[in-house]
Amino acid sequence: MKVSHIQGSFLNKKTRKGSMVILLVIAVGSSAFFISNKFFADAIIEYKISSQEADGFKAHSLAKAGFLGALGALKKIPEEVLYQSGIAFDPPPLPLGGGVIYYSMLPEDGKININSLAKIYDDQPNDRMVEIVSRLYTQFGMKRELIFPVIDWIDTNSQEMGGGAEVYYYSKLNPPRKIKNAPLYSLSELVGIKGYDRKMVYESLKPKDYDKNFSSDFQTEEERSLISDKDFVLSNNITAYLPFGDSYDDRININSAPYHVLMSLSDFMTKPAAMKILKLKIKKNGYIKELKDLENEPEFQTKSMGNLTLYKELAGEGTDVSGGRIKTKGEVYKIVGVGIIKDKIIRRVVGIFDLPNNTMLYYTED
After folding, report:
1. What pairing do the DSSP bridges indicate for beta strands 238-239 and 252-253?
2. Which residue has the higher pLDDT, 121 or 144?
3. Which end of the chain has fewer surrounding CB within 10 Å, N or C?
4. What pLDDT was estimated at residue 39?
């Protein structure tokens, strides 16, 4: 009996030990499972991050390839051919390298460079450009006074123009902002200036009843096709870049200027004259080669300031304004390269290129 009791006690201890071992194994196994599961989840996250980074790198490589392709075309192909090809400036997307590559190159000097509102060499307002921008703003229902904060932002002095803003205004904002007192490198800086916001700069300013109220002004299908909704976006009419060196050419390239920019060139500019430029461009396969092509058109024979015709005022003939207000040769181009992977990973490379000086005025990647 005593032996049996001892054996039973031994067996119970052994059973308890075995149970403890089993529980320990289960605990260790469970712990290992949760730990391994966590590491597995972390590994998946790391993989996804690496995969996204790899896709981002691919998209960036495609964007850069598109950018360099556009730049090469711009340097090698005559501008007249680029215009007349129809799609050279903005070709359709091209599948490449497991993704999509896209580029566009557009003449930037068909827009008004708002840096020209202040003269760099003497820090004074450029009266001619102030009047041009005033006329543009009026067409969009914007107050003329919005020009002054831009001039204050650009010039190096601390004296506020009427309705403008200098260091005192920006230092009182929450959070405070530092005024630049230098030209804008890109148009995106404009949204940080007093009176401006992203909606004003990048969204349509077309009045709600514009089509109804002005339906009789643009009667033919051709006329309606020459003015689109994108022409009512401020950023499609103005630009901001710092010109190369000390040279500055604020003439407007009529081959790429939209309707509202053309209408802003002179107090004597008329809708028929602006439409004539747009129509003549179509007639000449997309490119007006010489300003002289406008000289004998009736729309440009109307009287302007003094004894000048509208043509002479714009071309600068018989005036003391060197070079006039318009040109036909594009010199500054905005180039955009876009790379897309899996329809959702998108990278962009953007630059503003001075063709005659073979110089990149602005460059950014995102």
Report:
1. unpaired
2. 144
3. N
4. 46
Residue 149 parent element (H or E): helix 147-154
Query: Which tokens go with 171?
Result: 């230092």
CA distance 167 to 121: 22
Separation of alpha carbons 257 and 326, rounded Å: 10
Q: Are 240 and 186 in contact (CB under 8 A)?
A: yes
- Spatial distance between the Cα atoms of 348 and 83, rounded to a whole number of angstroms: 24
Residue 353: which of 73, 23, 126 has the closest Cα?
73
345, β-bridge pairs: 341
Q: Is the preceding omega at residue 258 within 30 degrees of 0, hence cis?
A: no
Burial degree of 188 (CB within 10 A; 0-12, 13-18, 19+): middle
pLDDT at position 35? 46
- How many CB atoms lie under 10 A from the CB of residue 338? 20
pLDDT at 205 over 60: yes
Name, in order, each residue with C-beta under 8 angstroms of 282's C-beta and a sequence gap of 6 or more.
Answer: 222, 226
| 172 HSE (CA, 13 A, CB side) | 6
d(CA 351, CA 360) in angstroms, rounded, equals 7
H helix intervals, the chain = 2-76, 79-84, 127-139, 147-154, 167-171, 198-202, 210-213, 221-226, 259-263, 271-283, 292-295, 310-315
Tell the CATH topology of 44-110+330-366: Pantoate--beta-alanine Ligase; Chain: A,domain 2 (3.30.1300)
pTM for the structure as a whole: 0.81
Say yes or no to pLDDT of 172 above 80. yes
194 and 149 in contact (C-beta within 8 Å)? yes
Greater model confidence, 108 or 48: 108
